[in-house]
Amino acid sequence: MLSIKLRPVGRKGQRSFRVAVMEKRSKLKGKFIEDVGWVNPHSNELRVDEERARYWISVGAKPTDSVHNALVKAGVIKGPKRPVHKTSKKKEEEPKAEKEQKAAAEADTAESGQEEVSAEEKEKEAKTEEGSEEKQEEKPEEAPPEDK
After folding, report:
1. Which burial class, exposed, middle or buried, applies to 49 when counting CB atoms under 10 A from its CB (0-12, 13-18, 19+)?
2. What are the boundaries of each domain within the chain?
3. Are strands 2-9 and 62-63 parallel, antiparallel or unpaired?
């Protein structure tokens, strides 16, 4: 599967990027099929060969999020930009403010409905006690099997 990626060139701290069509799983500094343009993030310059970029997209090459945004900026693709930022691989935890609000809400419901909860708990305890008594009563009623 083909992908349109940013290929880093230049020294450390002075990187610029080539917009290149390459195999999706290939290394960034590895083989590429075609160079379609370049991006210089230091001077905010961008040049893309629109005709070739459209061709590769029509053939099935998928641009990465950063390249997609660059192509939208250059006018090659029409549509909204994609959000490009790191997301946690772990499940996102709720923000602290929401946790505090939920804890406060639970505390309020527990205080207001404390009598109801205790009544329900008493009913459950009574049922479990009755059930355990019935089980104890059932065991002695069963007679052992007679030997013939």
Report:
1. middle
2. 2-74
3. parallel
**Model confidence pLDDT, tens digit, residues 95-135:** 666 666 666 666 666 555 555 556 667 677 776 766 655 55
Check if CATH label 3.30.1320.10 holds for domain 2-74.
yes
CA 132 to centroid of chain Cα atoms: 47
- Write down the residue that tokens 């006018």 correspond to: 75
DSSP string, 23-51: ETTS-TTS--SEEEEEEETTTTEEEE-HH
Per-residue pLDDT, 56: 94
Sequence-separated (6 or more) residues with CB below 8 Å from residue 41:
15, 16, 17
Q: Assess contact for 64 and 6: CB atoms under 8 A.
A: yes
Determine contact, residues 39/19, Cβ cutoff 8 Å.
yes
Give the CA angle between residues 59, 40, 64 to the nearest 5°: 35
DSSP H helical ranges for the chain: 50-59, 65-74, 96-112, 114-141
